[in-house]
Amino acid sequence: MIDCRWGAIAVAMLAYSPCAHANQNVTQLSRNPENWAIQSGDYAGTRYSALDQITTANVGELKVAWTFSTGALRGHEGGPLVIGNIMYVHTPFPNAVMALDLNDEQKIIWKYEPKQDASVIAVMCCDTVNRGVQYAEGKILLHTADTSLIALDAKTGTELWKVMDGDPKQGATGTGAPLIAKDKVIVGVSGGEFGVRGYLTAYDLYSGNRIWRAYSMGPDSDILVDPEKTTSLGKPVGENSSLDTWNGNQWEIGGGPTWGYMAYDPEFNLIYYGTGNPSTWNPAQRAGPDRKPIDQKWAMAIFARDLDTGVAKWAYQMTPFDQWDYDGINEPIPADLEINGRMRKAVTHFDRNGFAYTLDRVTGELLVADKFDASVNWASEIDMDKSSPTYGRPKLLEKYEPFKTGVDEVTKGICPSSLGAKNQQPASYSKLTGLFYVPTNHLCMDYEPFKVRYTAGQPYVGATLAMYPAPDTPDLGNFIAWDGAKGKIVWSKPERFSVWSGALTTAGGVAFYGTLEGYFKAVDQKDGRELFKFKTPSGIVGNAMTYMHGGKQYVAVYSGVGGWAGIGLAADLTNPEDGSGAVGGFASLSAYTSAGGSLTVFALP
């Protein structure tokens, strides 16, 4: 296998040449709105469809066209793909994949169920979810719970190749969807709660050979940065940009997982993704030798990396020295925005910490950073003064810093909770309105750090949480429209529970999403007016998608309650502290829905 570490990148790239400019297949398929060829709808992750048969005028007439039981319980995140007349459906563990014939009453053409050791479930943080398969060049790519990356023949389900990306015995698991660009399959890893040092890896689409791997923290040769050419906020990161911000060798168990949705910009050949929380959640154990905060780069950061080499063009850290588990994995969405009268090639990211960041996607310049939830109180603002020594950093409020409160002491009233003002549930960017449509959470927390010892393969959390509604309302979520250029909410629609479902927007002027209690909803993109809702068999944590078949537009979504917010129902937990406080925060959810796994597909009569 080819492993392009920093010192060998040039040699490896010269040696590696097959199909380097191949695979326009995904690009072509995703340009046809009749398909849903990528989990995120397109390479930019806009989750916007040009289909317009379903409009604001007729969406209220939607009826269930057909349903399909997945045969699995637990949280059903991600969504199906549609390529031509075939739909590809996936499940949470055991990560089965099925191909359905849309021309023949959704007949199952083939089913693939990988062989995995069930012990991996014990090291899966926050439910046994899987965020979806991907398609390219007649192959389905599946990333399984035990970190296997598997290529299947899309016609037959036959296994073509399989590689292990990590070691579940060390706490590494696979929950994120791959990203396929050119001849490469890009995949991340979960395990920040087990002290796994996060990484992103590129594999050859045709052979499964490893091309490069970029760690979230460590030496420059591991994280694939050029000290002079890789920048952060316009300045070179410098030598040992990560090592200098860790105490001793703590970076070796530093976290920074990479399980969120990624984006790709073919124009600049850059991939964009976020890194998660540093390990452990107890900030005192990560402090510097003088017992002062240190940044722990590059956890909690957005990276822009060259697809072919993995070398970072730029990086930006949202939450230095994280004290709240504000995992930074949420999807970056490239979109051209007019900011201060100038069109910018931007990328927008809604972080768990409650701030929405818009950056120049070519240079990494920070353009906009504002709160997208009014309850956010851990920081007052992001310093936007380029002449300031703290430019780009959050202005912390000491009252809500667990590090200042102390180990085994409770810091109360922190907003948002560790669930974040938005978690993994992806937003959508509408090319019709130029706005982002964002599923959000609205909870606060009490946070108590405690000392924890690292043992490979065992939880390395180090904090106890209690979650509850923000003080202004009993509602636990909102669905909002966000102006990424101005950094402000255009409208907000409250929901009883967190909106844990990915959004979808269409050229028909409609925005779709699901709720934790199981409603699938359609609203007007202009004002948030509710136009349609339907109660599905279980809570929705999947992502809405749309496709066209036989001249008719369909909209579909998985139901199957779970994920972090629904872990109490999914795993039958009752202790309020379980699920890192989520069980207590969502205790009333069991009165509105129950476990199940199914796909519901809607169409006009």
Can you describe this structure in just a few lines?
This protein has six helices and 40 strands. A five-stranded mixed sheet has the order 1-34-35-36-37, with no helix packed on it. A four-stranded antiparallel sheet has the order 2-40-39-38, with no helix packed on it.
* Radius of gyration from the alpha-carbon trace, in angstroms: 22 Å
Q: Number of helix segments?
A: 6
| Order of strands across the main sheet | 1-34-35-36-37
Main sheet, how many strands, which sense, barrel? Answer: 5 strands, mixed
Name the quaternary structure.
single chain
Q: Looking at the structure, what is the overall shape?
A: globular
Account of the 3D structure:
The chain is globular and about 70 Å long. The N and C termini lie far apart (53 Å). The model is unreliable at 1-22 (pLDDT under 50). The protein has a 5-stranded mixed sheet, with no helix packed on it. A 4-stranded antiparallel sheet has the order 2-40-39-38, with no helix packed on it. Helices cover 5% and strands 34% of the residues. It has 605 residues and is mainly β. The longest helix is centred in the N-terminal third of the chain and has 7 residues, at 9-15.
